[in-house]
Amino acid sequence: MVEMVSKPYARAFEAYATKHPDKILCLSADLTSSCEIDGFRDRHPEQFLSLGMAEQNMMSFAGGLGLAGFRPFIHTFGVFMYRRPYDQLMASIAYPRRKVRLMGFLPGVTTPGGMTHQSIEDISVMRSIPNMTILETGDATEVESICEAADSIDGPVWCRVLRGSVPRLFDTPIKVGEMRVLSEGTDVLVVTSGICTEEAMRARAAFSQAGLSIRHLHLHTIKPFDAAALLDHIGSVKHGVVTLENHVTEGGIGSLVAETMADAGMGKRLVRLGLKDTYAHGGSRAYLMRYYGLDALALVRGIEDLMGQDFGIGEADLDAARVEDVHSLVKAEGL
Amino acid sequence: MRNERSTEEVALGIRRRVFEHCIRNNGGYLSQACSAAEQLAWLYNEELNLGDPTLPMVPKPFEGVPSPSNPGYHTGAGYNGPAAPEFDRLFIAPAHYALVAYATLIEVGRMAPEGLEMFNKDGSSVEMIGAEHSPGMEVHNGTLGIGFSTAAGLAWGRKRRGERGRTWVYMSDGEVQEGQTWEAIAAAAYHKVDNLYAIMDVNRQQCDGAMSSVMDVGDIKAKIEEFGGVAVWVDAHKLDEIREAAKTPHRGKPLIILANSSPYRGMPTLQLRFPRLHYVRFKSEKERAKMNQEIARSLKVDPIDYEGAH
C-alpha cells in the first residue's frame, strides 16, 4: 500500500519560510487552516499577513510587497486566486514579474465544493499569461518540495497544491523544468499530472499484465515546458499518446501535448482525457473522478480507444481505489 | 532636488503645456490638467522628497516589456529619482493623467520638453495611458483601482524594513467606484500602514460624464473614515489648504487628502464641453479654433499656431 502523508504542506512551508524570515511572507485570505498555515500563523505571526476575503486587494498588495523586495506566498483556494482578481493578478503580479508564489489549494475536483470552488481551467489561464511559471504537485514529496521549487523562480509562480492526506509516490523533490519518467514502455505514452498520476500508475500495472507496454511521464512543471524531451518520448512509442488531467482538456496538459506534437509535425494519435468541456459538481473526489472520467478506469478506456482494442481490463483488475468519505474528516474539504 | 519656481508657477506651466499639446493634437486629457495642476505641482515641487532623476532627460524609446529575455528592463520611476530608503515614492493611480504627469515632470526639470513630443507616438515609452516604463511611472495603473493596494503593500514592506521614505498615491474619485479601493483602505488601516499617503482629485468626472450621472459614490470622506482611514477635504486649487492637510495626524492609518477640484479651473471655456470632459476631442475646426483663442487668453499665452500639426 502506498504511504499516506498527513499535511505535508504545513510542515514544508514552515520549514522553508522560517529559513528566510526577512524575505518570505505568508499571506492568507480567510482560509488559513484550510490551507494548512494556521500553525505557522500562530508560531510566526511576524511573517503572517491576514488580508481577509478581499482577493483583489491581496493581489495588488502582494505586488507592492514584491516591489519592496519581499517574496510573498499567497495561500487560498486556487479558484479564488485567479477568477475574481484576474486583472490584479495580471497587472500587479504577472506583468512586472513580481516574485509572488501563488499557492492554489484544492485543484480541480479535489474539493466537494462544486463549481465555485473547483479550479478546473486555471492551468489554461496561467499558460496564456506571459511570465508565469506553473507547477503542480502529484504526491507528498512534491508538496514537500513545492516551496523551495517555487521560490527558486525569478518571477511569479502558480502552484497547484495538494493538502490533507497525500500519497507518497516519489522519492525525489521537484526539479523545475524536468519531467518524471515513471516507466519506459514502447507501445503507448501516457502523460499525467497532479492526482491523475496515481490513477495512471494503477492502470499501468493492469496493462503490463495484459501485455501492453506503457511509457509514463508525470509533469510537475507545466510551464516552462521541455518540448524536446516530450517529443523524444513520443518518438519512443509505437502507437500514440494519452493524456489525463484534473482539469478541462482545453488548455491544460492535453493541449500542451497536442501543441507540441502539432508544432513538430508529429503524426501520432492523441487521446486527451480530463473534464470534457464541462463544469463539475459537488461530491467526493473518488466519485467525481469516476463520474467525470479522470480515474484509472477512464485511462484504461482511453488507451483502449487509442489502440482500437479491448484489453478486458475491469475495475477488479485495477488496484482497489482509495476511497475517501468526505463527511468523515474533521474539516472535510474545508468549505 | 529643489525647484526654483513657485508651485503656482509650476501649476500654470502644467496647464499651459497640456493646453498647447491638446490644441496641437486636436484633443487630449485637457480637463485633468485643470483639476490636477496644483496637486501634482505641489507634490513634485514641495512635498515629495525625491532624489535626482536617474534616467535621461529625453526619454528612451520603448525597450520591451518585462520578461526573462529582457534583462535590461526598467520602469520609468527613475524620473522620480532612485528608490532609496530615505526617498518618497509616487504612484499615479489613474494612469489616464499621464499627460498631466509628464507635463509636471517637465515643469520641475525632471524631463526635457521634447519628451512630450513623443506622447502617444508609436515606439515611444511616453504612452498615452501611463505604462510602468513611461516617465515617472513605476507600476501599471491603467486598470483603475489597483494603485492604492499596490502602494499599501509597498508601504507596509518599507515600514517593516524601517525605511523613512513615504509612499504617495495620486488618486482620482472615479476609481472609488471600484470595490478594490475599499478593500485596500480596510487592509491598510488594519495593518496600520501609516506611511501611506494619497491625494485624490475629486473632480466628479469620469469617462461617461459626471459621476452623479454614472454612479454616484456618496460621501467619500465618511466612507474612508468608516473603512479605517483618515480623510481631509481641501480646495484643490488652494495650496495652503493642501499644505496644511498633509500635516493631519493619522497615526496607524493611511491619510487621504480629498482635493475638491474644478474640471475647468484655469480654462473656463471648457465648461462648454460638460459633461464630456474625460478626453476632450474637438468636434470641429471651428471649436478647436475657438478653444485655442479663449483658453490661450485665460492662460495668458498666445494662441497656438497649429498649422502643420495634425
How would you characterize the overall build of this protein?
The complex is a heterodimer of chains A (335) and B (310). Chain A is an alpha/beta fold and 335 residues long. Chain A is 33% helix and 22% strand. In chain A, helix 9 links the parallel strand 13 and strand 14. With 310 residues, chain B is of the alpha/beta class. Chain B is 35% helix and 12% strand. Chain B is built from 10 helices and 9 strands. In chain B, a hairpin with a 2-residue loop joins strand 5 and strand 6. The mean pLDDT of chain B is 96. The interface between A and B is medium-sized, with 31 and 33 residues.
Rg calculated over all Cα atoms of chain A: 19 Å
- What is the number of domains of chain B? 1
Strand order of the largest sheet of chain A: 3-2-4-5-7-6-12
Pair with the most extensive interface? A-B, 31 and 33 residues
Strand proportion of chain B: 5-15%
Structural class by secondary-structure content of chain A: alpha/beta
Biggest beta sheet attributes of chain A: 7 strands, mixed
Which spans of chain B of ≥5 residues are poorly predicted at pLDDT below 50?
A: none
State mean pLDDT of chain B (0 to 100 scale): 96
Helix content of chain A: 25-40%
How many domains, in number, for the residues of chain A?
2
Global mean pLDDT of chain A: 94
CATH architecture of chain B: 3-Layer(aba) Sandwich
Give the proportion of residues in helices of chain B: 25-40%
Biggest sheet descriptor of chain B: 5 strands, parallel
Which topology of chain B does CATH recognise? Rossmann fold
Instruction: Supply Rg of chain B.
Output: 19 Å
Q: Could you state the CATH homologous superfamily of chain B? A: Thiamin diphosphate (ThDP)-binding fold, Pyr/PP domains
Keywords (chain A): Thiamine pyrophosphate
Pfam families (chain A): Transket_pyr (PF02779), Transketolase_C (PF02780)
Domain Transketolase-like pyrimidine-binding (chain A): 3-168
Protein name (chain A): Transketolase
